[in-house]
Design goal:
The complex is a heterodimer of chains A (178) and B (196).
Chain A: H1 2-7, H2 16-34, H3 41-55, H4 59-62, H5 64-72, H6 81-100, H7 115-135, H8 140-149, H9 153-169, H10 174-177
Chain B: H1 12-32, H2 38-42, H3 51-72, H4 88-105, H5 109-117, H6 121-139, H7 141-149, H8 158-161, H9 166-190
The chains are: A mainly alpha (178), B mainly alpha (196).
Chain lengths: 178, 196
């Protein structure tokens, strides 16, 4: 595959405004079909709830998170809209990468830092994003983007908190990126 | 007519099948816009690549206008469309924690799955982190429950809170986005840029 990417020119990214319109149409389709927007962290939550329930059948009674989850999600947590949608995301991302010649196993990082440092920060960032998405009832997709499309006040607040914080802290993490 | 599933015009299984196809389109658009690259995503915070801002706001406006027009034409009943509830405290604190995760990790959950799909190992590690974070929240939920449920305001729309119609707010949002796009184009020219 690495030969393939060397010989074949990697296709350029989509124009961002066109990408935005297409993403907006996908979000519109989600609302038209399911009456709800897109999401990502909700699928992770479903997997987490499923495994907790598999290990501890009584968790709904002993763990308040599971009780809260059971209240808002009836039935099998894996049979959820977002789980199917996220399976699609992996397929769609893979197909786009395959067509554009971008399939490659690698750690992407600034030349100024090591792969190891990049992975440590990726893990820490993932932990925080996972935790924050539960507290904030959704991530950049489900709370910020989808919330903004339906003019939800919470969506706008979460969007400003996410991007505002990242901008405010960008200086301290600049070595990782520039 | 719409939304189809809440109006029971399609079965639950059809809804799940369509979720899978909508997901494919979602993943395709994210990847082909460059959202599978953490260095491209982080560019917005340093001015060298504003793709996040351009895609994100264009998408929000497109979907918002689409919903308003579809409602106007009677194609969708907006009262059946889910509006995210507003819990003021947790929306802010959760957002701040996510913001720290964003600048450290370079991905958000959706984009990390996209990056992992094309082989980015940093994205796979980020996803492992996501699971740890969600498990962490699940097992310490008791500590955060008060914060999680504090300052519940219902499901207000920003337009309602600002005392204007959805359409007028939409117009302001478009103007604000155009202003940000102009700044973004300027920043991309000013700061050195590479394609990742």
């Amino acid at each position: 595959m690495s030969n393939n990417t060397k010989t074949r020119k990697v296709r350029k990214y989509l124009n961002p405004y066109l990408g935005g319109v297409l993403l907006g149409l996908v979000l519109l389709a989600a609302n038209f079909v399911a009456g709800r927007g897109l999401g990502a962290s909700g699928a992770v939550k479903s997997v987490v709830a499923t495994t907790i329930r598999a290990v501890d059948k009584d968790a709904v009674n002993t763990n308040p998170f599971m009780a809260e989850y059971a209240e808002s999600h009836s039935g099998n947590p894996m049979k959820s809209w977002l789980v199917f949608e996220m399976l699609g995301v992996v397929v769609g991302g893979f197909l786009s990468g395959a067509v554009a010649g971008r399939l490659k196993l690698k750690v992407e990082h600034s030349p100024k830092i090591t792969s190891r440092r990049r992975l440590v920060f990726a893990l820490a960032g993932g932990v925080l994003f996972g935790f924050g998405s539960q507290l904030g009832r959704g991530c950049t997709s489900g709370s910020a983007l989808s919330g903004m499309a339906v003019l939800s006040m919470g969506g706008f607040i979460t969007m400003m908190a996410i991007f505002g914080t990242a901008f405010a802290l960008a200086y301290f993490f600049r070595r990782n990126w520039i | 007519m719409g939304p189809l599933a809440p109006n029971e015009l399609i079965s639950e299984n059809t809804n799940f099948l369509l979720a899978f196809f909508i997901g494919i389109a979602f993943g395709w658009v994210l990847e082909s816009s460059g959202f599978s690259s953490s260095r491209k995503l982080a560019g917005i915070f340093y001015g060298y690549d504003a793709v996040v801002l351009k895609v994100f706001f264009t998408a929000a406006i497109t979907a918002m206008l689409g919903l308003l027009f579809m409602s106007l034409f009677g194609w969708i009943d907006l009262s059946l469309v889910y509006v995210n509830p507003t819990y003021l405290s947790s929306a802010i604190v959760g957002g701040v924690v996510m913001g720290v995760g964003f600048i450290m990790g370079g991905f958000c959950p959706g984009t990390s799955f996209c990056g992992a799909a094309i082989g980015k190992i940093d994205a796979m590690v980020f996803i492992a982190g996501l699971f740890i974070g969600v498990y962490g929240f699940a097992f310490t939920y008791g500590w955060w429950e008060k914060l999680y449920l504090a300052n519940y305001l219902g499901e207000p729309k920003v337009s309602e809170k600002l005392g204007m119609s959805d359409g007028l707010f939409g117009l302001f949002m478009i103007l604000a986005a155009l202003g940000m796009f102009i700044v973004a184009e300027w920043a991309e020219k000013k700061f050195p840029r590479e394609e990742y």
